[in-house]
Specification:
- The structure holds three protein chains of three kinds.
- Chain A contains 14 helices and no strands.
- Chain A is mostly helical.
- Chain A has two domains: about 80 residues, no CATH class; about 240 residues, no CATH class.
- Chain B is of the alpha/beta class.
- Chain B has two domains: about 240 residues, Rossmann fold (3-Layer(aba) Sandwich); about 80 residues, Alpha-Beta Plaits.
- Chain B contains eleven helices and 13 strands.
- Chain B is globular.
- By secondary structure, chain C is mostly helical.
- Classes of the chains: A mainly alpha, B alpha/beta, C mainly alpha.
C-alpha cells in the first residue's frame, strides 16, 4: 500500500470512525467529488437523506464500506503485476499436486481409520479458503509501530488503529485467495473430486460456524500480537502464533489423526474452533444436536477471548502511557 | 620509481540499447547492446609517493579509472601496469599492496568495536604482529580515534566511521591507496583532520595516494598533482599552479569601495562590471595591467575605503569547465 | 591455506557479533525450535497414524527429515544471505569490495555474508537424529557413522550449490531471480520419500534438481532399504552429485564475473 494511499485511509478512517456521530451521507463518504478513483462502492440511494440511522449502525456501515474500498484498492495494486499472479497460481497448483501425491501414498497403506482420501483432500482445499483469516503479521506491525512512534495512533484513536491493523492484513489475504485458494478449489473439484456440502442447510450452518471461527481467530491473533508491547524482539511473534495453530488448530494435519491425549488437550483450547471445527461441520462429521453444542462453544470462546483481549489491550495502553512507547 | 602506468587505455561498457519501436518480444529474445566509452585513450604514469587529485564532473570516468587500477575491471584495450604487473591477473598480490576506500561504504563489522575489524584485517592482509601493533597505534594516534575505539561501529558518527575506514585502509602499510570521495558528507573539522592525516602519512611512509573528490579544498590542500578527466578524456595532468595558469580567466576582478559615491573609472584597461554607489567592480586583463599597478592607480587617484582583487578560484574554473 | 584461515577469522567475528545480543539470539533460536519442532511432530503424527509411508516407518521418515533439514541448515548458513543480496550486489559496491581483497572474491563474499542464525536448526536436527536413531534401534559400524557424516556434508554442498545456481541470475537481472522458485518452492516437496510422486517428478528430483541426493537416496544405505524403483547404485552417488554441482556453480560464477567485468556497473 503506497504512502499516499495510507494518508487517504487515515483521513477516511478518522471521518468514518471518529467519535462524533456522523449523519449517514453516502455522497460524502464515497468521496465521489474528491477522489474519483476511490469511488468503488456504488451509491446506496435507499439511504440518501431519507432517514438518519442510529449512530452505531451508521458507523458500522461506514466501516464496512471503507473496508471494502481498502481491500479492492490493495487488489488493484497487486493486479498490475501479471507475471507474479501467474507464478503464484502455478505454484499453488504444484503444491496441490504434491499434497495429493502424499495423501494417496498414505492412504495406500490401508490404515485410513475413520476417514477417506476424498474427505481429507476436501479438508485441505476448503481449509485453504478459510485461511483467509490467517495471513497476518500484526505482531510485527505493532512492534515496528512502537519503534517508529506511530503507536500514538493506538492511544488517540484505538478503533482506527485496530481497523488499520486488520484491514491491512486482510487485503493480502484476499489476494492469496484469488491467486491460490480459488484455483486450487477449481482444479481440485475437477481432477481430484471434492465433497460438496451435504445440504444447503448444512452449508448455511457451516458459513455461520466459519464466521464465528474467523472471529475467534482474529481475537487470538490480536492477543498473541499484543505481546509485542512487552517484548524487545517482536519478529518471531507470528511464528509462535502459527506454531500454536499448527499444533492445536489443525492447519497442517486434521485433528482426527491425532492420538487421544493430544486431541483432548486441543479440545479445551480455542485454536481448533477457529478453522478445524467449522470444517468438520462442512464435512458432516458434526451433525444434529452436536452442531448446536459446537456453535455454543464458539460463542462462549468469543466472549472469553473478547474479555481477555480487552484486558490485555488496556494493560498495553497503560504501558504506552507510562513508558512513552 | 614508476609505480602506476596506464598506456592508451580504453574502456567500453556494454549497455542495453533499448530502441523505441521494437516489440517487447524481440527485446527479450535478442536484446541489442551498444557500447559506451567510459575511458577514452588515457595515459599517465604515477611515481611512488605522489599525491594525485583526480577530478572531473560526474560520469566523467573517474570511478572507472579507479576500478581499472584496482583490478576490478579490465581495459578494452591498452595496458594497465601497477607494481609492474597487470592488476587483474595478479589480483591477490596487488590487493596486498594497495588500500581502497569507496566513499561512505563501510567495510566494518557493524555490531562489534573497530578493533575487531582491525583484527580481521590483520589476518586477511598477513600483517606481522609487531608491524600490526606499531601501525595500528600510529593510525589511532594520527586519526584521533582513541575515544571511540571501544564502541560498536553501529554507534559511531559518520565522521568517526570514515576515520576508522581510513585507518583500515592504511593498516597493512600499502604502497598505493585509492580514495574515492573520502570526505563526502563530513563536517569541516573531520575533513581537516583527514587532510592532515593524508599529508602526514604520505610524508612518513611514502604512500602513493590517488584521491578522487568533488571537494575543491581537498584538492587544494592535499593534491600536489591534478588530473582532470571529462567524458573519458584526460584533459589536464600537472601541478596546481600550472592548472591555474592554464585555465584561469584572462582577467581578474578589482573590487573597490569608495568613500563617496563616484562615477565609474575610465581607463583602457578597466572594464566596468557593476557599480552601485560606493561599490564598483572592474575586470582587468592580466596581460594589460598587473594587479599591483591597478591597485596603486586607483588608490592614488581616489579616496578608497576598501580595495580587493578577486581571481578565479579552482571552483570557478571547474564550474566553467564542467559547463562546457 | 591462507584463504581458509581468513574465512574462519571472519566467521568467528560474525559469531562474536551475534553474541553481542544474546537476548535476541536466544529468542530467535527458541522460536525456530518451536516452529520446526512442531513441524516434525506433525510429520511424525501423520505417518504414525497410517503406520508407514511408501514403505518407510515413522522414525525412518523423521530420520530422513532430520538429515534433510540439517543439510539445508548447514548449506544455507553459507549462502542464504548471499543469495538474498544478489539483486543489489553489483550496484551497491559489495562486489567491487570483494574484488579488492587479497583472497578470492567468492570466498570473501561467502565469509562476510555467513548466517549465524542456523545454529538453531543444527541443534534441533541433531536431537531429532539422536532420537530417531535410538528409536530405530540402530547400531552402526564406524564406517556407517562416517557415511552419515559424509552424506550430511554432501547434502549441505548440494543445498548450497542449488541455492546459488538458482539465485545467481539475480546478479544480472538486478531483481528477484526467475529461477529462484526452483529452489525455494520445489525443495519443500523433497522432505518426503520422493517415490510417492509420479515417475516424471522422481526423474526431476534425481537428474535435474537433484534434491533426492540430499537425504532420500543416501540414507537408504544406512537403513538397509531399497526404494524399489531406482537401481542400487543411486544410493551411493551423493558425493558424485555434490562434486558435479560445485563444478557447475563455479562455472556459473566465472561466467557471471566475466560478464560483470565487461559490463561494469
Amino acid at each position: 500500500m503506497s504512502g499516499i494511499f495510507l494518508q487517504e485511509v487515515d483521513d477516511m478512517t478518522e471521518e468514518a470512525l471518529g467519535t462524533e456521530p456522523v449523519a449517514f451521507q453516502v455522497n460524502k463518504f464515497c468521496l465521489a467529488d474528491q477522489n474519483a478513483d476511490l469511488h468503488i462502492m456504488p451509491y446506496m440511494p435507499l439511504f440518501e437523506g431519507v432517514f438518519k440511522l442510529p449512530t452505531q449502525l451508521n458507523l458500522m456501515l461506514n466501516a464496512l464500506n471503507l473496508y471494502c474500498i481498502i481491500i479492492s484498492k490493495g487488489i488493484q495494486q497487486f493486479a498490475t503485476y501479471r507475471t507474479n499472479i501467474f507464478a503464484r497460481i502455478v505454484s499453488a497448483l504444484f503444491m496441490l499436486g504434491a499434497r495429493y501425491a502424499l495423501w494417496i501414498a498414505l492412504f495406500a497403506t490401508g490404515n485410513a481409520g475413520g476417514t477417506t482420501l476424498t474427505e481429507t483432500m476436501t479438508y485441505f482445499v476448503i481449509m485453504d479458503i478459510l485461511m483467509v483469516w490467517t495471513t497476518s503479521n500484526l505482531g510485527e506491525r505493532i512492534g515496528s509501530d512502537i519503534q517508529s512512534g506511530d503507536i500514538s495512533l493506538a492511544l488517540i484513536r484505538p478503533m482506527t488503529y485496530h481497523f488499520q491493523l486488520l484491514s491491512g492484513s486482510h487485503s493480502g489475504a484476499v489476494i492469496h485467495t484469488l491467486t491460490g485458494s480459488l484455483p486450487i478449489l477449481i482444479v481440485a473439484s475437477v481432477f481430484i473430486g471434492i465433497l460438496p456440502p451435504v445440504s444447503t442447510g448444512a452449508f448455511a450452518v457451516f458459513i455461520l460456524s466459519a464466521v464465528l471461527g474467523g472471529i475467534i481467530y482474529i481475537f487470538i491473533d490480536l492477543i498473541i500480537s499484543y505481546t509485542a508491547f512487552w517484548l524487545m524482539d517482536y519478529w518471531y511473534i507470528g511464528w509462535y502464533k502459527r506454531a500454536l495453530f499448527t499444533l492445536f488448530g489443525g492447519t497442517a494435519l486434521p485433528l482426527w489423526f491425532y492420538p487421544e491425549w493430544l486431541r483432548n488437550i486441543s479440545s479445551v483450547l480455542p485454536f481448533q474452533l477457529a478453522l478445524f471445527t467449522p470444517l468438520e461441520v462442512y464435512l458432516g462429521r458434526i451433525y444434529g444436536a452436536d452442531i448446536l453444542f459446537t456453535l455454543g462453544m464458539q460463542a462462549i470462546w468469543i466472549v472469553l477471548l473478547f474479555s481477555i483481549e480487552r484486558f490485555i489491550w488496556s494493560r498495553a495502553q497503560n504501558k504506552i502511557v507510562v513508558q512513552g512507547g | 620509481m614508476l609505480q602506476i602506468e596506464l598506456s592508451n587505455v580504453i574502456k567500453d561498457y556494454k549497455i542495453r540499447d533499448r530502441q523505441d519501436g521494437r516489440s517487447g518480444f524481440s527485446e527479450f529474445l535478442r536484446p541489442l547492446y551498444k557500447s559506451q566509452r567510459a575511458v577514452d585513450d588515457i595515459s599517465f604514469t604515477i611515481q611512488k609517493g605522489e599525491m594525485v587529485g583526480y577530478i572531473g564532473p560526474n560520469g566523467a570516468g573517474k570511478s572507472t579509472t579507479i576500478k581499472l587500477l584496482t583490478g576490478i575491471l579490465t581495459p578494452t584495450s591498452g595496458t594497465v601496469q601497477v607494481f609492474d604487473c597487470d592488476p587483474c591477473k595478479n589480483r591477490i598480490n596487488n590487493s596486498l599492496k594497495m588500500g581502497v576506500v569507496f566513499g561512505q561504504r563501510s567495510q566494518m563489522i557493524w555490531d562489534l568495536p573497530v578493533r575487531d575489524t582491525f583484527d580481521m584485517f590483520r589476518v586477511m592482509y598477513r600483517i606481522k604482529p609487531q608491524d600490526f601493533s606499531r601501525q595500528r597505534d600510529m593510525l589511532i594516534d594520527m586519526l584521533d580515534m582513541s575515544d571511540f575505539l571501544k564502541q560498536a561501529v553501529r554507534q559511531l558518527s559518520l565522521g568517526q566511521r570514515m576515520r576508522a575506514n581510513l585507518a583500515l585502509c592504511f593498516l597493512h602499510q600499502p604502497q598505493v591507496v585509492y580514495l574515492d570521495e573520502p570526505t563526502i558528507g563530513l563536517d569541516v573539522l573531520v575533513k581537516d583532520k583527514i587532510r592532515d592525516f593524508l599529508k602526514k602519512i604520505n610524508k612518513e611512509q611514502n604512500t602513493t595516494i590517488l584521491l578522487t573528490t568533488h571537494d575543491t579544498q581537498d584538492i587544494e590542500e592535499v593534491a600536489q598533482r591534478l588530473m582532470l578527466i571529462d567524458k573519458g578524456k584526460l584533459l589536464f595532468d600537472g601541478g596546481q599552479t600550472d592548472f591555474h595558469d592554464k585555465y584561469k580567466d584572462t582577467e581578474y576582478i578589482l573590487e573597490v569601495v569608495f568613500v563617496q559615491p563616484t562615477s565609474p573609472i575610465v581607463h583602457t584597461n578597466f572594464r566596468l562590471q557593476s557599480h552601485k554607489g560606493h561599490k564598483h567592480s572592474y575586470k582587468i586583463p592580466y596581460a594589460q595591467m598587473s594587479k599591483g599597478d591597478a591597485i596603486s592607480y586607483v588608490a592614488s587617484r581616489y579616496s578608497v575605503a576598501d580595495i580587493r582583487v578577486r581571481e578565479s578560484s579552482l571552483e570557478d574554473i571547474l564550474k566553467k569547465m564542467y559547463e562546457r | 591455506m591462507h584463504s581458509f584461515r581468513v574465512f574462519l577469522t571472519i566467521v568467528k567475528h560474525l559469531f562474536r557479533a551475534r553474541f553481542e545480543y544474546p537476548g535476541s539470539f536466544i529468542s530467535g533460536i527458541i522460536a525456530q525450535w518451536i516452529s520446526y519442532g512442531i513441524s516434525m511432530v506433525m510429520l511424525f503424527l501423520m505417518i504414525w497414524n497410517f503406520g508407514s509411508l511408501a514403505g518407510w516407518m515413522p522414525f525412518e521418515i523423521i530420520f530422513m527429515y532430520a538429515v534433510w533439514l540439517l543439510s539445508y541448515a548447514l548449506g544455507a548458513s553459507f549462502t542464504f544471505n548471499l543469495c538474498l543480496s544478489f539483486p543489489q550486489i553489483a550496484i551497491n559496491g559489495t562486489l567491487d569490495e570483494a574484488y579488492t581483497r587479497p583472497i578470492p572474491p567468492f570466498l570473501y563474499l561467502l565469509a562476510t555474508t555467513y548466517n549465524t542464525g542456523y545454529i538453531s536448526h543444527v541443534i534441533l536436527t541433531i536431537i531429532a537424529l539422536a532420537v530417531s536413531i535410538i528409536q530405530l534401534g540402530i547400531s552402526w559400524t564406524a564406517l556407517q557413522w562416517l557415511w552419515l557424516l559424509l552424506i550430511i556434508v554432501c547434502g549441505s554442498v548440494i543445498n548450497a550449490c542449488m541455492m546459488l545456481i538458482c539465485d545467481m541470475p539475480a546478479i544480472r537481472t538486478r531483481s528477484e531471480s526467475p529461477t529462484g522458485i526452483f529452489f525455494w518452492q520445489v525443495r519443500e516437496f523433497t522432505q518426503y520419500p520422493i517415490t510417492i510422486y509420479p515417475r516424471a517428478i522422481l526423474f526431476v528430483f534425481t537428474a535435474i534438481l537433484p534434491f533426492g541426493f540430499v537425504s532420500f537416496y543416501p540414507i537408504q544405505v544406512l537403513l538397509g532399504k531399497a526404494d524399489g524403483i531406482m537401481p542400487q547404485l543411486t544410493m551411493w552417488l551423493s558425493p558424485v552429485v555434490a562434486v558435479l554441482l560445485v563444478g557447475v556453480t563455479m562455472l556459473c560464477w566465472k561466467y557471471l564475473s566475466r560478464e560483470y567485468e565487461s559490463a561494469g556497473t
